[in-house]
Write a structure and sequence with these properties.
409 residues; alpha+beta; L-amino peptidase D-ALA esterase/amidase; Ubiquitin-like (UB roll); 2 domains; nine-stranded mixed sheet; six-stranded mixed sheet; 11 helices; 32% helix; globular; Arg_biosynth_ArgJ; ArgJ-like_dom_sf; Arginine biosynthesis bifunctional protein ArgJ; L-glutamate N-acetyltransferase activity, acting on acetyl-L-ornithine as donor; ArgJ_beta_C
C-alpha cells in the first residue's frame, strides 16, 4: 500500500476500497435473499463519523432512504451502514418502513451503538416485503470474523453488476496521511440525478460537516449526476460519505490551505466510481465519454452532455460502430440549450465529423475501427464561452433487453 508523506499529490490505489481509511471495517454474507451469492453487508467505523448524503430525485423514495435521511439529520453522524441486495424495500408501505427501522435497530444492537448511528440501504426488486426472518438471522451473524472483509462487502451489494467497483486515494494534509476509499454498485436504471446506484465513501479526514456536505453535493453534480445507462431514475439510491477523523489532521474547512487537495481526492474517488458504473451498464460493451467545451454556463454544458449520452440512438450507433454523427447533432439540438448550428464542431475521437453547420469528410473505415474500441469519446465544441463539462454512459445492446426482460425471474 502506498503511503503519502510529503507534497500535495494524490496517490490513486485502484485495488483499495472503503476499508483503506483508518478505523473502518466491512464485511458481508449470504442470508438467503439471493440463491447463493452474498446479499447482506456492512461498513462500520471504530468511532462515530461525520456523515453526509445525496439521494435519488424519484418521488417514490424507498423506506431505507427515509430511515437514513432521518439518521443523518439527527446529529450529522453515523457509525455504520447496513445494506442488503436483491430486495429494494420500495413501495412497501408502512410495513416496509417498519422493516427498515428493524434492520437499523438490530444492527445497532449488534454494534452496541444508538439506533440513529446506523444508516440503512437496500437495492433490488421493487414492491416486495423483506423476509425479515432471514435479514435478522443474517444481521446477528454479520459481525462474525468469518464474514469480515471488504471483498465480502463488495459482493454483497451487487445486483446485475458484472464487476465490483472500488478505488482508494491518499494525500498529505497537515503532515498526516489522509485516505479516502470508495465502493459502489450500479448497472441498470442509471440516469443523471441520482439513479439506481449505491455509493459508499469513507475517509479518515477530520472535516466539518457543512463543508463535507457541500463538497459532496458539488462533486455529485460533476460525477454521479453526469452518467446514464438507460434513462431510468430509481427509488432507492444514494451516495453517503463518512469521515471519522482518525487521520489526525487539523479540521478541514473550505478555508484550510489543503482544502483543494482533499476536494480533488474526493472528486477523484467519485468520478472513478461513476465511470465504473457507466461502463458496467447492463449488457454494455463500451464506455462513452462526452466532452462539451465552449459553453456559456455550467448548466448549458451539462445539458448538452446529458442529452447526447442519454440518446438511445447515439448509444445504439456506438454499439454498431456506426459513425452516425447526425444522431449526435440531433441530441444537441433538443438539449434545450440555445445554440448557433453554424458555430458548433463535433468530433468522434480525433475525427471531426461536423463543423460550421455542415458534415466534415472523414475516413469511414478508420472511424469504424476507432468505434470498435472499448472507450469512445465524443467531443462537442459550442464556441459560446469557456465553460466545459463531461458526461459518461455506455452503448445500448441486445443484452440489455435480455437482462431486463427477465429481471424478476
Amino acid at each position: 500500500m502506498a503511503q503519502v508523506t510529503t507534497g500535495k499529490e494524490i496517490v490513486i490505489l485502484k485495488d483499495e476500497s472503503v476499508t483503506l481509511p483508518k478505523g473502518f471495517k466491512a464485511g458481508g454474507l449470504h442470508c438467503g435473499l439471493k440463491r447463493k451469492k452474498l446479499d447482506l453487508g456492512y461498513i462500520a467505523s471504530a468511532v462515530p463519523a461525520t456523515a453526509a448524503g445525496v439521494y435519488t430525485t424519484n418521488v417514490f423514495q424507498a423506506a431505507p432512504l427515509v430511515v437514513t435521511q432521518e439518521s443523518l439529520a439527527k446529529e450529522n453522524k453515523i457509525q455504520a451502514i447496513v445494506v442488503n441486495s436483491a430486495n429494494a424495500n420500495a413501495c412497501t408501505g408502512e410495513q416496509g418502513l417498519k422493516d427498515a427501522y428493524e434492520m437499523q435497530s438490530q444492527f445497532a444492537a449488534e454494534l452496541g451503538v444508538k439506533d440513529h448511528l446506523v444508516a440503512v440501504t437496500s437495492t433490488g426488486v421493487i414492491g416486495e416485503l423483506l423476509p425479515m426472518d432471514k435479514i435478522n438471522t443474517g444481521i446477528k451473524q454479520l459481525l462474525h470474523k468469518d464474514n469480515e472483509g471488504v471483498n465480502n462487502f463488495l459482493q454483497a451489494i451487487l445486483t446485475t453488476d458484472l464487476m465490483v467497483k472500488q478505488i482508494g486515494v491518499q494525500m498529505n494534509i497537515d503532515g498526516k496521511t489522509v485516505s479516502i476509499g470508495g465502493a459502489a454498485k450500479g448497472s441498470g436504471m442509471i440516469h443523471p440525478n441520482m439513479a439506481t446506484m449505491l455509493g459508499f465513501v469513507t475517509t479518515d479526514a477530520n472535516i466539518a460537516y457543512t463543508d463535507l456536505s457541500s463538497a459532496l453535493k458539488d462533486i455529485t453534480n460533476e460525477t454521479f449526476n453526469m452518467i446514464t445507462v438507460d434513462g431510468d431514475t430509481s427509488t432507492n439510491d444514494m451516495v453517503v460519505v463518512m469521515a471519522n477523523g482518525l487521520a489526525g489532521n487539523g479540521q478541514l474547512t473550505k478555508d484550510h490551505p489543503d482544502w483543494e487537495v482533499f476536494y480533488a481526492g474526493l472528486k477523484t474517488v467519485c468520478e472513478a466510481l461513476a465511470k465504473k458504473i457507466a461502463r458496467d451498464g447492463e449488457g454494455a460493451t463500451k464506455l462513452i465519454e462526452v466532452k462539451v467545451a465552449g459553453a456559456f454556463s455550467q448548466q448549458a454544458a451539462r445539458a448538452v452532455g446529458k442529452a447526447i449520452i442519454s440518446s438511445n440512438l447515439v448509444k445504439t450507433a456506438i454499439y454498431g460502430t456506426d459513425a452516425n454523427w447526425g444522431r449526435i447533432v440531433t441530441a444537441i439540438g433538443y438539449s434545450g440549450v440555445p445554440i448557433d448550428p453554424n458555430s458548433i464542431k463535433v468530433s468522434i475521437g480525433a475525427y471531426p465529423v461536423f463543423e460550421n453547420g455542415l458534415p466534415t469528410p472523414f475516413d469511414e473505415a478508420k472511424l469504424k475501427q476507432y468505434l470498435e474500441q472499448e472507450n469512445v469519446q465524443i467531443v462537442v465544441e459550442l464556441n459560446q464561452g469557456d465553460v466545459s463539462a463531461t458526461a459518461w454512459g455506455c452503448d445500448l445492446t441486445y443484452d440489455y433487453v435480455k437482462i431486463n426482460a427477465s429481471y424478476r425471474t
